[in-house]
């Protein structure tokens, strides 16, 4: 039950990130470069504060022995950069399909390369859940104006797959996530210096970027690293297909939008696909 709750918290954080990015980037409240930089920096600051508060003695000991590594920081940075720049160009529904297809394929692929087997039920659960996601976003699907944005979204999903697989080996998730964000500041600062002439920020955009960084990214990713070692790779991969569904339900709650038959059918397919996978490991 504890693992299930942590998994749900992480998925809620991912959905929150999606909603925040939509309001910040698509409304032109902030440019992608500034959004990424503020997101990473505020995430790092929030994580350092959490390390100082949660358990000073154990955190201090962990900080002496665990320093994270650059691989986690690099994959996190690539994901954040590629996602933000693709998000402002790709239509939301098409972008979600590309992103989560890349996440699924990369996590399953890495798992296979590492010698693990992926059984028929896992493929079936993933296919059903992905079909539910496709059905959910079908009415808004449009061909992309730029295929470069599609490539960027594929890179983002693949980088997130590597970041997630990397997190399954974390013995100190909070410390590792903190150092990932700390190192990522260097990566995104260097990478985004090219976009200095195009910076554009508003108070709304800055506020949303800080919220995304400190809460739904920093704390959310720490929870993700905490729960990953307790999950099978296929469960972690397929479970993420529920993120667009959670974001849609959030829109219904916040904006009082209408519950449609399409949403209900998509929810049944997505949740059903996840259960097909999860129940496999409980029998």
Automatic annotation (TrEMBL):
Subcellular location: Membrane
Sorted UniProt keywords: Membrane, Transmembrane, Transmembrane helix
Pfam families per record: EamA (PF00892)
UniProt entry tagged with the keyword Magnesium: no
Annotated transmembrane regions: 36-54, 70-90, 96-116, 123-141, 147-165, 177-196, 208-228, 235-255, 261-279
Gene Ontology, cellular component aspect: membrane
Signal peptide (from-to): none
Bilayer disposition of the protein: Multi-pass membrane protein
Domain of life: Bacteria
Keyword Membrane: yes
Domain EamA: from-to ranges: 149-278
Name used for this protein in its record: EamA-like transporter family protein
Native organism: Pseudidiomarina maritima
Classification lineage: Bacteria, Pseudomonadati, Pseudomonadota, Gammaproteobacteria, Alteromonadales
């Amino acid at each position: 039950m504890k693992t299930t709750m942590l998994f749900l918290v992480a998925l809620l954080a991912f959905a929150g990130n999606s909603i925040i990015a939509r309001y910040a980037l698509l409304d032109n409240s902030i440019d992608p470069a500034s959004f990424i930089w503020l997101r990473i920096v505020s995430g790092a600051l929030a994580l350092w504060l959490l390390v100082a508060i949660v358990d000073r003695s154990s955190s201090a000991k962990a900080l002496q022995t665990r320093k994270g590594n650059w691989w986690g920081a690099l994959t996190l940075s690539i994901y954040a950069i590629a996602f933000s720049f693709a998000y402002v160009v790709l239509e939301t529904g098409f972008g979600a399909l590309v992103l989560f297809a890349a996440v699924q394929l990369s996590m399953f692929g890495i798992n296979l390369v590492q010698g693990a087997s992926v059984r028929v039920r896992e493929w079936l659960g993933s296919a059903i859940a992905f079909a539910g996601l496709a059905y959910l976003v079908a009415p808004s699907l449009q061909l992309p104006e730029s295929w470069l944005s599609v490539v960027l979204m594929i890179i983002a999903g693949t980088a997130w797959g590597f970041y997630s697989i990397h997190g399954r080996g974390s013995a100190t998730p909070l410390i590792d996530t903190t150092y990932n964000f700390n190192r990522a500041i260097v990566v995104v600062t260097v990478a985004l210096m090219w976009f200095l002439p195009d910076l554009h920020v508003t108070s709304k955009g800055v506020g949303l970027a800080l919220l995304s960084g400190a809460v739904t990214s920093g704390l959310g990713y720490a929870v993700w690293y905490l729960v990953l070692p307790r999950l099978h790779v296929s469960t972690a991969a397929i479970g993420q297909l529920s993120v667009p569904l959670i974001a849609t339900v959030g829109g219904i709650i916040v904006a009082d939008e209408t519950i449609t038959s399409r949403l209900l059918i998509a929810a049944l397919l997505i949740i059903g696909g996840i259960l097909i996978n999860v129940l496999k490991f409980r029998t």
